Amino acid sequence: MILHASCVAWQGRGVLILGPSGSGKSTLALQLMALGAMLVADDRAQVDPDLVVTAPPALGGLIEARGVGLLRAEHAPATLVLAVDLSQAEPDRLPPMRHTLVHGSRLPLVLGRGQDHLACMVLQYLKGGRQA
Question: Which CATH architecture has domain 2-128?
Answer without folding.
Answer: 3-Layer(aba) Sandwich (3.40)
